[in-house]
Hints:
Blueprint: H1 11-15, H2 36-44, H3 46-50, E1 53-54, E2 60-61, H4 86-96, H5 100-106
Antiparallel strand pairs: 1-2
Helix pairs in contact: 4-5
Amino acid sequence: xxxxxxxxxxxxxxxxxxxxxxRPAAGYPSSxxxxxxxxxxxxxxxxxxxxxxxxxxxxxxxxASVSGLYFAHPEARYFAVDLVTRDQVEDxxxxxxxxxxxxxxxxxxxxxxxxx
Length: 116
């Protein structure tokens, strides 16, 4: 795709996000649910293609592994998912085929309510 082919960025530039576009990953404020990595791994056959495995908590092994979504458009900007209400969590859990408790676990930092 030629993403960033002309960029000549230093490590400091990368840390300051001076690159074109955005590069969010699971766990970023725009994609708080780490379980989405399971879908990505399945679609890409990532373990067979790369040898990178997912733990039960969706951490990648080996630990130096990274994954993300790359949006090259120069106007792309990072964003955050706001607090999520119980009805939204219930709908999300239904669509993901998980229990409400599982959805609450993965979205815990974004819940607009206390879990009993």
